[in-house]
Design brief:
The complex is a heterodimer of chains A (436) and B (309). Chain A is an alpha/beta fold and 436 residues long. Chain A contains ten helices and 17 strands. Chain B is built from 14 helices and two strands, in the order ααααααααααααββαα. The chains are: A alpha/beta (436), B mainly alpha (309). The interface between A and B is large, with 52 and 44 residues.
């Protein structure tokens, strides 16, 4: 009883009338020293001239999270996701603005942080539990649950430095999920362990979410994000660029990944003897397109110019999904066609025809020029063309297999036109497969 | 209301008192963590050694043996039972030095933890002070038969006073330990300077010699300034306070003077007694000041530990 009063004093109990998380105008600045400070010599040196640049990991970030919301924070590496999570976890104080959390916060930023190799599993459970804010009594109460979830009972009295890395992480996770906070912050920890353990940990988090607790996830695994969260906050260079439904957020992030690749490598690269002069993506009517229906025949037209005498070369295309997944690759040489011979400044136009048997999403096409054996790359135009496939009723998954259905025996019923249109997260498909 | 009470941003100064009391509540809630960390320190230290705790007794015992030989037979320090005299000061000194030495690395050495998990950072240096306090208690237990043998049974009757003195010193050590831990994060040279600082500090503290000996003018009048200077060293007061109930008070012999008979000892060693109110009050004042300064420095630094570790 007295503990609860203390808990209220310290503000760790939930006040349902207020949101779970309020972030208001948060800016976090990191000082990047050009030469690491921390020594006497550097100190004296810095008295004369300071050598650093300030870098804003977060700039004026504001949002509110209500109780029971599950929110994903996505963005490129270095966009400030982890910094944001650390601010919510109180590890870093904001340099400007304020961040409030309402209720007990637990963060899974790193599993097994604070384990001591020389201590046994049993001792580390108590130590790590205490680090995560559990009292000794609370750990004792959950001890068996932790041990069974991690599956370490035979090794309980062995020093953890003898544990395998997988076991180490499993124990870390098992302790962390028993904290039972009001707000759970998770940073990329889903990516550890074997498939079976990942399933169990995902299950644990879903269970947590379904109990109406607040959940904030930072991840690059967009499938997991889509599966776990209802809302997405997209960060780009420390700023919130999107805050809304998860499907839209993930799509926007995919596009940004694609566009940032283009921005970086928009200029065709290559040291070879052939340059990519121009690329065009043409629809069935011969006009450039950027959004098509599934299974539309497309033509990728590449105009190349030789800068040297070329016997023969091969022109190819690579189709990738917005997040970089390699979907399809084709080179003229694979079909027995070489381009050449070419004299300097002579141009050639190559048409690569393919059918977009794809489902809704954003895709990029990269043009490459290689020698006639496909060994040496002479020129690359990354994401030379991009196109979107429109959402239409049909199948679900990654590719359009153009299926049709019929009941060949027995009675059938017309139920309307309900259909799934979006791609199903791959992880879910894989799990289904395993469960069978 | 409870939302208001957990601001993560900069708090205006008028909330300072509230923040301080919140910190105390937080530390109270973190007492299990503190206990676990202390247990960790103790376990880790002796886990892989067969002699275990005896190792921590080896240093004071050897030091005592060496110093007892030197300062009894070579350079005579005129106190009764030099070994007991030295031990009663040296155990205390060792507690203080080891606390600070452990604490100075506590934040930097736990960088992974500091960057990944939130908990009141104060527990890191404090866990070292507390685990050293356990060592001190064990060490006292080990040497008490010897002290009783040389100084009489009154060592035991004055035990509550010894424990009280340890409590006040633990406060002082906590403050100094927090200061070292906090400053070392931004100024890593401190850990190199540490050995030198503590070596000088050790000789500037009346552990090896009684303060009364300096005051008596035994080494000539020139030592007057030294007696004054020693009073500015806080550890002087703690050693004096700790030694009186454990060994006994060493006072200037009134019969000793420039014209006195050479056989008159400059100082008199009494049996275990009660430390004077002045000594205790000065020690308490130092302890409170150290905790205040150490805590303020530490908590200012702690805000950005995760960035700097």
């Amino acid at each position: 009883m007295s503990r609860r009063t203390i808990g209220q004093l310290a503000g760790v109990n939930v006040d349902p009338s207020m949101p779970a998380v309020v972030v208001d105008g948060v800016t976090e600045t990191f000082r990047l020293f050009h030469e690491r400070p921390g020594g006497l010599k550097e100190r004296l040196y810095r008295l004369r001239r300071s050598s650093y640049t300030d870098f804003n990991a977060l700039e004026d970030v504001s949002f509110t999270i209500d109780h029971g919301e599950s929110v994903a924070v996505i963005g490129h590496n270095g966009s400030g996701k982890s910094t944001l999570l650390k601010i919510l976890a109180r590890i870093l104080p904001p340099d400007e603005g304020t961040a409030w959390t309402n209720g007990r916060v637990a963060s899974l930023l790193e599993l097994g942080a604070g384990f001591h190799g020389d201590l046994t599993g049993r001792e580390n459970i108590y130590l790590n539990g205490a680090i995560l804010g559990l009292t000794r009594a609370e750990v004792a109460e959950r001890f068996d649950e932790i041990v069974d979830f991690a599956g370490i009972r035979p090794l309980l009295d062995t020093a953890v430095r003898t544990y395998s890395s997988g076991l180490y992480v499993r124990l870390g996770f098992a302790i962390a999920v028993t904290v039972d906070p009001d707000i759970l912050l998770v940073d990329e920890v889903l990516a550890v362990g074997d498939a079976e353990f990942q399933d169990r940990s995902l299950g644990r988090m879903k269970e947590f979410r379904d109990r109406g607790k607040t959940f904030v996830l930072v991840s690059h695994d967009l499938d997991a994000v889509r599966e776990m969260c209802d809302r997405a906050i997209v960060l780009d260079r420390g700023r919130v660029v999107f805050d809304g439904p998860v499907a839209e957020g993930v799509e926007l992030y995919r596009q940004r990944v694609a566009s940032s690749v283009v921005r970086q490598g928009a200029r065709p690269r290559g040291t070879g003897r052939v340059r990519v002069e121009e690329t065009l993506l043409l629809g069935p009517d011969g006009h450039p397109v950027d959004e098509v229906m599934p299974s539309t025949p497309l033509t990728f037209r590449v105009r190349v110019r030789a800068t040297d005498d070329v016997e023969a070369c091969s022109v190819g295309l690579t189709v990738t999904r917005g997040d970089g997944t390699h979907l399809y690759e084709l080179h003229t040489i694979w079909q027995g066609v070489g381009v050449g011979p070419l004299v300097p400044d002579q141009e050639a136009v190559v048409d690569l025809r393919f059918t977009a048997h794809l489902l809704a999403g954003h895709y990029g096409v990269t043009a490459t020029v290689t020698d006639d054996r496909g060994r040496e790359t002479w020129a690359v135009a990354p994401d030379a063309a991009r196109f979107a496939v429109a959402t239409v009723p049909g199948g679900a998954g990654l590719v359009n297999l153009a299926a049709s259905t019929s009941v060949s025996e027995g009675p059938a019923l017309r139920l309307g036109t309900e259909s799934v249109t979006g791609p199903i997260p791959v992880s879910r498909l894989e799990r289904r497969r395993r469960e069978q | 209301m409870s939302v208001e009470s957990s601001p993560l941003g900069a708090a205006p100064p008028e909330r300072l008192l509230r923040r301080a009391s919140k910190k105390l509540v937080e530390l109270y809630l973190a007492r299990d963590l503190l206990a676990q960390l202390v247990a960790k320190e103790l376990k880790v230290r002796y886990k892989n050694s067969t002699l275990g705790f005896l190792w921590s007794m080896l240093t004071p015992v050897l030091m005592t043996a060496v110093f007892a030989v030197i300062f009894t037979y070579v350079v005579r320090i005129p106190v009764a039972d030099f070994a007991a005299f030295f031990l009663s000061g040296y155990l205390l000194w060792q507690f203080f030095q080891n606390s600070c030495q452990g604490a100075i690395h506590s934040v930097v050495g736990n960088g992974d933890l500091v960057k990944k998990v939130y908990f009141p950072r104060e527990v890191l240096p404090l866990s070292h002070v507390l685990s050293q306090l356990v060592h001190l208690l064990l060490a006292l237990l080990v040497v008490s038969p010897y002290l009783v043998y040389t100084r009489g049974w009154s060592v035991l009757t004055h035990l509550p006073l010894t424990l009280g003195a340890m409590g006040i010193l633990a406060l002082f050590a906590s403050g100094v330990a927090m200061w070292f831990a906090g400053v070392n994060v931004v100024f890593r040279d401190l850990q190199e300077l540490f050995i030198v600082i503590f070596l000088v500090w050790f000789y500037a503290t009346p552990v090896l010699y009684p303060l009364a000996l300096v005051r008596s003018g035994w080494a000539g009048d020139a030592a007057d300034w030294l007696a004054t200077a020693l009073q500015f060293n806080p550890m002087t007061w703690f050693v004096e306070m700790f030694r009186v109930p454990l060994y006994g008070e060493v006072t200037v012999n009134p019969a000793f003077g420039p014209g006195a008979d050479p056989v008159v000892a400059p100082v008199i060693s009494a049996g275990p007694g009660v430390p004077s109110a002045t000594v205790v009050l000065v020690a308490i004042a130092w302890a409170l000041a150290a905790v205040l300064v150490g805590y303020v420095v530490f908590s200012r630094r702690a805000r950005t530990f995760a960035k700097e570790v």
